[in-house]
Amino acid sequence: MVHEITAVLVSWRDGGETIAAVESLADARSRVGADGPAVSLVVVDNGGEGAVGRRDLLDRWPGATLLVNPTNRGFGPANNQGARQSSGRYLLFLNNDTLVQAGWLSEMLKIVRDDESVAIVGIKQLFPYTSEVYHTGIVFTSDRQPVHLYPHLDASVAVVNKQREYQAVNGACLLVARDVFDDATQVANVSLGIEQARFLLACPAVTQ
Fold it and tell me: Which terminus has fewer CB within 10 Å in the chain: N or C?
């Protein structure tokens, strides 16, 4: 089966949170059904106590790939490791403590399908189990400091529900075309992690 998107999650000593995130992904996928995009899943476990159980993972996402590192390789290298195992045209990098909602991924995908000039799509992120906005995107102040826009506003406010171009998006959940990711990381020689901002600044970004 050809998968349009490969989701990459990195876990370190928090297998329980990772499995909860996978359950959230699987539930959202089931509610969209056959009309949703085909998604494969790669989980990279950076070792230590609280590892991701292979059976727990496959019970929730049959066919998922689990990569287990004997030691902690770090967040960035582990994401790159997962990306190298991907089969999708698009990569979805998702923090392993994220809970998603039905329809979220189709909306992200629609943006890059409709406009090939968009390199990365981010999200409106809420504080857990609330309607309070954590961020909608990132801008830079006159002294070049990154700032999250609209923190703590209610998620129903119009200004936080407007699709727009940003200077960067938060890495907690981002969708990027595989060829864009490959080109940006090769040219800049960066990993998705500590130098994440350099990668994000290299690409036009939109939040939806």
Answer: N
- Here the tokens at position 177 are 């075309």
List, for residues 89-127, the tens digit of each pLDDT value. Answer: 999 999 999 999 878 898 899 998 888 888 889 899 999
* CATH code, 5-207: 3.90.550.10
Three-state DSSP string of the chain: CCCCEEEEEEECCCHHHHHHHHHHHHHHHHHHHHHCCCEEEEEEECCCCCCCCHHHHHHHCCCCEEEECCCCCCHHHHHHHHHHCCCCCEEEEECCCCCCCCCHHHHHHHHHHHCCCCCEEECCEECCCCCEEEECCEEECCCCCEEECCCCCECCCHHHHCCEEECECCCCEEEEEHHHHHHHHHHHCCCCCCCHHHHHHCCCEEEC
Q: Which residue has the tokens 């939109």?
A: 206
pTM: predicted TM-score of the whole model, two decimal places:
0.86
In one-letter notation, the amino acid at residue 110 is: K
